[in-house]
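FAQ: What does the model actually see?

It sees only this:
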Amino acid sequence: MKLLVTGASGLLGLNLALEAMSTHEVIGVDRGKLANTPFEVLKADLLDAGVLDLVLDAAKPDWVIHCAALADLEACEADPELARRLNAQQPGELAAACAKRKIRLIHISTDAVFDGLNEGFYTEDDDPAPLGVYSQTKLDGERAVLAANRRAIVARVNFYGWSLGGKRSLAEFFFHNLKNGKSMSGFTDVVFCPMMVNDLARVLLLMLERKLSGLYHAVGPQSMSKYQFGVEIARKFGLRESEISPKSILSSSLLARRSHNLSLSTHKLSTDLGQPLPGFSTGLDEFYTQYQQGYPQKFQSYQQGTP
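And it is asked to produce this:
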């Protein structure tokens, strides 16, 4: 199958493209951050008029996984119109374009569509309650995609891994600070279900292979606080967990509101796939192994301007 990955320089997009290469022909779409990648890259800004149609007609993919988004919560609050265009309007337009061409689509959404005020482990049937611009625009994007394309998949995710610039995931934040002997805080009252990005990539490809459609929660099966997540990173890499101070998000200076409990149920997805989703410990093992194998340095070599 020929797979088109939008947002190919992002944390998920890059890892997904590399993961899929062994079994699929991969084409990435990027605005110009990537160079020297082992997969083909189309340079394009998907917000430009007519570009979605041009990219789809040039690539002629069988599958599209739409990773491109404005995912910085603070940036979304600062520029809600850009957030609306990237996170809500563009996904709907892409879904319609894919439906017209009979291209299978996965749209990447977020666990943040919930307010986190109940006991967690939200199902796909629970009503979303967005707290800010990012979560509202992502929810609007979900609805636009499913309205335009009944065969599309919407996957609500939360993931970590190595990224192009080394600063895109929470795992990298904890690792680099601990590695450099810097103290930091970890929120004890923000709970989530992290999944290693390569595990997520493999799950997404399997969802396409099984011809699923509709809304799914594609996160890790284990919930934990962000503080505990940092501690697990420290322990895996033999770093000092005492450098991570437990902290309440209520005392932070973040502009965008965060939900306290974003644990999601993955029962629907694991049932429809006929297998359990990858556990946290195996994903963390892979994250550590990739570090030993030089993944951060390899990713840096894919940056535009790197010799």
